[in-house]
Amino acid sequence: MFKGFKEFIMRGNVIDLAVAVVIGAAFTAIVGVLVNGVVNPALGALFNTADLSKSLIVTIPTTSGGEAQILFGALIGAAIQFLLVAAAVYFALVLPINKLKERAEAKRKAGASDEEVPPDELQLLTEIRDLLATSGGGKHSD
Question: Where do the TM regions start and end (predicted)?
Fold first, then answer.
């Protein structure tokens, strides 16, 4: 049982996913404050309301004789928040990492020495595999 769990945890993409969730939560908190504290009040001012989620409300009758509210302002606010989170992740993480990869690949193609070029993912995984093989790290019996 533990052997299977260990294999699952040791996969690189599980750790990448965990990091992505933590970073995403941090960016969501920051962008949430930005949207709720700056964007929503600014857009709410256009609609004469303190908050965007309290504007563009459409009331419709229900079959039971009551009323239901469709909160288009809240939907617009959530869409803006999503776009801001996506932009923050792209410009703060994805774009710089892609630039670093492009530079490393250009150095590799130009024939730079191994010390000048950071290793790519395949090289790192190969080194980790070799280290585990030499230290007996992957040969436990549970």
Answer: 12-35, 70-93
Spatial separation of the C-alpha atoms in residues 40 and 54, rounded to whole Å: 10
Find the farthest-apart pair of alpha carbons in the chain and give their distance in angstroms, rounded.
77
Written as one string, the DSSP assignment of 11-41 is SHHHHHHHHHHHHHHHHHHHHHHHIIIIIHH
Helix (H) or strand (E) holding 67: strand 67-71
Distance of CA 95 to the CA centre of its chain: 13
pLDDT tens, position by position, 76-108: 878 887 887 788 778 877 888 889 888 878 877
**Other beta carbons less than 10 A from residue 58's beta carbon:** 10
